[in-house]
């Protein structure tokens, strides 16, 4: 049977869109006889030509302030510059955008691509969708995929690209699991079969409404394509992956900025850059390449019974039985490394497992009750439970394995399906005018207790690593250049900077930059500055970050207006930065309406940024 051809382009920063797009290629081929070619969007004009493609499906995330991911920026520039309104009139398309509603400009890249394709004459053959990581991507992706295949087949049959496939024979994308009366679970059986399940006390292993269902809709089982052998080796040869360029730096200072009574400790660190070119400006962020916690890796190896194989070298190849079109040896695993190295440095073992992993775990589980529960957790019917108890509680792969003791996955599953360990971002709070070879940033130390399904104590991945490494340790870094989080060119523009907690970091960078500009730029007049900083801590005696520096900027007249909130101090009238914003509402509204002030907000994106935005909107209405 001849197969249909569809172009699948992905824009991916962290690997999510890439893995979704690659998974789609396999489903297309295995279950729908559709031949999809998958490429980075930036491979346009090298691997594919838009002028020649009749059908395109785009899967893309956004990065920064909604900008295209790094492998999609060339693609975006190309279609943005295109002048011919009929340029894509031959094309049918749809977009799956990935984003997080906690961040501003949700799914912006997907949305602008979608709009631009329409402007250039392309026709959407199936509604584009915007998947929200805040509630679980699969909630949108699953139903979207379900509808995509029939829509694709219909479109392909209309455009007559090739003709021999018989659409009627094609199977559905979602497997229906029919439970026979034999394996139909009952509450009694769940409890009596073993003591592993703690009935309704344990939300991960049991929920009565799901246990009673006789039909579950499971996601398609991902196909393996890798063959992994573990080779005993006396040498510890770990050659790092060379496909991504990182700059090198050395940790030269680490200091705690808070006192012992602080609720969260905040650390400040300096990295000394090596001689290679590393350019940054005030407002930029630095990406830190980190490693998983040794103890967590040890627990995972132990749980999987692989401790004695930890130092074995991974020999990864494409399996001779592979039928996956997208089969590739993962680029984030170096060609020569041990199992321990891969789990420590290359693979994200902390992210909550996606449903496709849970689906794979089903077949690696011997206990029937555990098997059934894993099916429930990855099923469409179990979506709410999956989101509430796995995603929202940030359960890791190790937590899941601890809850399902009879699950014994193969090494290949973890290597092939777990995402790459991505570098973490921190705002730089130093200025290159001070030292082009030193960057300073801060982070708070987060501890997660073993509660709510989490089976072991843990800290933030990168901050824990930064806390543990010795001074003098090499740290690989990249910059993330901010498109919008920049000082304006005209220095008399009023700046309203709002940054509670470590969110103040980039503003310290701004103020330092302005302070040093006074000395280094001819004609720079401090009287032209109109700077406002709204900062929030919990207790001014315990966690007032950068106190001395802020006072110095005030004395130098670089910081004209400073307001502090203290959320846990009794009798202090300003709990949150919003209270200080309200107290200065009239003046702020005037600056915004009449002086084109720029408002910068940095910090907890989930709640604070939303609340600050609402407060400012109210102020503007009130003082209009
Ligand atoms: P935090 O936990 O955000 O707390 C800082 C202050 O904000 C506390 O006084 C807190 O009060 C208060 N707060 C809580 N909810 C608030 C709300 N709805 N509105 C206004 N204020 C609120 O501090 P953090 O641990 O330093 O975290 C800062 C956040 O900034 C993190 O989400 C981090 O990812 C982000 N960030 C960090 C950097 C960096 O370079 N390190 C850069 C950019 C963004 P209570 O807790 O007492 O209620």
From TrEMBL:
Gene3D superfamilies for the chain: 3.40.50.360, NADPH-cytochrome p450 Reductase, Chain A, domain 3 (1.20.990.10), Nucleotide-binding domain of ferredoxin-NADP reductase (FNR) module (3.40.50.80), Translation factors (2.40.30.10)
GO biological process: homocysteine metabolic process; methionine biosynthetic process
Highest taxon listed in the record's lineage: Eukaryota
One term under GO cellular component: cytosol
Residues annotated as domain Flavodoxin-like: 6-149
One Pfam family it belongs to: FAD_binding_1
Enzyme class of the recorded protein, top EC level: oxidoreductase
UniProt EC number: 1.16.1.8
One MF term in the entry's GO annotations: [methionine synthase] reductase (NADPH) activity
SUPFAM superfamilies in the record: Ferredoxin reductase-like, C-terminal NADP-linked domain, Flavoproteins, Riboflavin synthase domain-like
Cofactor: FMN; FAD
Chain ranges of the FAD-binding FR-type domain: 244-488
PROSITE patterns: FAD_FR, FLAVODOXIN_LIKE
Keyword Ubl conjugation in record: no
Keywords in alphabetical order: Amino-acid biosynthesis, FAD, Flavoprotein, FMN, Methionine biosynthesis, NADP, Oxidoreductase, S-adenosyl-L-methionine
Coiled-coil region: none
PANTHER family named among the record's database cross-references: METHIONINE SYNTHASE REDUCTASE (PTHR19384:SF84), NITRIC OXIDE SYNTHASE-RELATED (PTHR19384)
Protein name: Methionine synthase reductase
UniProt organism field: Adineta steineri
